[in-house]
Amino acid sequence: MWVKSPRFRFWGSVLLGGLALQFAGATFAGAAGGGAGHPSEAIFILQIILLIAVGRGLGEIMQRLGQPSVMGELLAGVVLGPSIFGAFWPDAQHLIFPANPEQKALINGLAQVGVLLLLLLTGMETDLKLVRKVGKAAFTISIAGIVVPFCCGFALGQFLPESLLPHPEQRLVASLFLGTALSISSVKIVAVVVREMQFMRRNVGQIIVATAVIDDTIGWVIIAVIFSLASRGQLDMMSVAQAVFGTLAFLAVSFTIGRRLVFRLIRWANDTLVSSAAVITVILLLMSCMALITHWIGVHTVLGAFVAGILVGESPILTKQIDERLRGLITSLFMPIFFGLAGLSADLTVLKDPKLLLLTAMLVLIASIGKFGGAFVGGAMGGLNRRESFALASGMNARGSTEVIIATIGLSMGVLSQNLFTMIVTMAIVTTMAMPPMLRAALSRLPLEKEEKERLEREEFEEKGFVANLERLLLAVDESANAKFASRIAGLIAGARGIPTTVLHLGPRAKAQEKRRADEESHESTVKNAAKVSAEIEKEDGEEVREIDVTSRARQKKAVDAVVDEARKGFDLLVVGLNKVIGADGGFYRNVESVTAGFDGPLAVVAAKGHHLTRPDSDGLKILVPVSGSGVSRRGAEVAVALARSSNHPLRVIYVTTTRDKGRRRRNVSVSLFEEEAILKDTIALAARYDVEVITTLRTNTAPEAAILQEMRGSNIDLVVMGVDRIEGDGLNFGGVAAEVLREAEGSVLLVSNGETTK
Length: 759
Prior knowledge:
- This protein has three domains: 100-443, Na+/H+ antiporter like fold; 461-603, HUPs (Rossmann fold, 3-Layer(aba) Sandwich), CATH 3.40.50.620; 619-759, HUPs (Rossmann fold), CATH 3.40.50.
- Helix 2 (41-64) crosses helix 15 (320-345), helix 9 packs antiparallel against helix 11 and helix 10 runs antiparallel to helix 11.
- The chain contains 30 helices and ten strands.
- The protein has a ten-stranded mixed sheet, with helices on both faces.
- The model is unreliable at 6-11, 23-36 and 660-672 (pLDDT under 50).
- By secondary structure, the protein is an alpha/beta fold.
């Protein structure tokens, strides 16, 4: 490999030296002009360049070697610090990373912001649903996995030589810090490895990640208490009690009132502000305010940032684009700087001292045995078998980023000495690099149970599915009975996954009439009631059914402009329910065309007929869905299955030829129907994943519209769900088959299109 080439290393050193000399001139010029002791912007920029370039470069190499990229960023600091760069070229190293406080304050300030953002990102990656699902076992495992290594670390701290303690009189605080550092796992490292191995959704993978989440949360609470203790310099029970109860109160308020408030703020920013990156600005402000609150109650700011990340990650309208932007900023800028500075602070040359090297080896051994043993025992107590407990213990032994953050906090507080900090960072590097191969070997030996396999197949399908990836629904309605039925359809779709829904009232008197209705008769209440029915089916044992968030909007402009204004806020599906759907010419009525013209994404046009006009919320939908093997027909099948879950009738599935197949209809019934039967089996498998009963019909020699209408009449169907293509043209057009069914069907019709148009 060219990276290992001596010539590459030589020219790399020359380039680094040249950069150092170039910036040295700028530094001396700045010092001469500004006076001694003034920080240099040139040096600050060079530090950022080196930390990002070397950190990301080594991170790339680490990933190719099967290690998390954060290890490369940490090693970059070691390379640029006194351990390597300083040992070979001390003058250049001191020039680029000077020791004067003013210069260090610049990069340290950036790193402190990076700590908060890292904890924000960690919180955003925390899946509370996962924790609740395996919470009992994970909590038992986490307690055992924390207590054992904590006791080991605390005992080690009590016997450390005084030369390793910056303040020997505060040995208790140092011991508590060391115990905490040894007991916490890095949820980020654990999650990365488990995700890379495709084990994130496996039962044992969920327990591993959930346990790491609980470890992290308990660890930050402990660190918050220790910070309060260290800031006062003595064991003050009143201050400790204040920190503990303040932390508990903060967590209680955050996960009750705070959860709702954060969601409303994010939605308000997304829906109201027109400036770029408005949601990211609100998220950063939320993080900063919550960090200040935890600082005010006497604990460390990292707890506030971590909890803010959890709440932001739970927001149902945190779009993938927003998440990727924020994540990109943190991983590309702040992570290399923070972990690089942590590596810079670790002077591995002190390990030349045999006593320190021996103590470091003991620290690594005690940390590994304590964490591995505690997690293994906890796994057995939590009901895991030996193989699962071994995999769990292997994953929990990684300290990684969390350990470095804790050690950095301890160093900045004066609780840890420079040598002890180096020992802890070394332990973090060793345990983290040993974890991935151990965990991979342990997980590869775990068998896949039948029930787990079925769940994994369902979740793999949902990742590529349409309904499972909906984040927000927009419901455009007037005061008609069709609007009422459309509200029910939208609620059934939204309820299973708690999708926030906005009801846009159209028509000059729509909102006024909506206000005059009783609350239980409004479109909003119809959506919520239908969503509750759907959510009851989706919920697991012990879960509480939460009411979905429904927002009401009144039209202030023309219908098309009102839809355009709402659409820019980011909706994944527009459900249209208006009084008149079919025009005099057999096409769509002009109001439907006007409303849909302002929305470029997927559409669901509802046309209520029969008893749905008089009783739109009547129970027991009898649903028919035609399939043809096309992508749009599969999308229709997904929506039909989602609706059929709340019905006590089986879903009827009919195979029909598409308009493109008309020229090759079969004349010989003896010809194999293998392809058609395979399409039906695929839909049956889709429905089976959600425990929906299916009745199938195969019609190949009949025009699709005729086959659908015959099946509706013969099976007493009251709703047909069709996946349709949106045909390019001046008006709204879903093709001849959809138009014929919409015009001739005696039951209700739901047309579901994708966001693209075809010729």
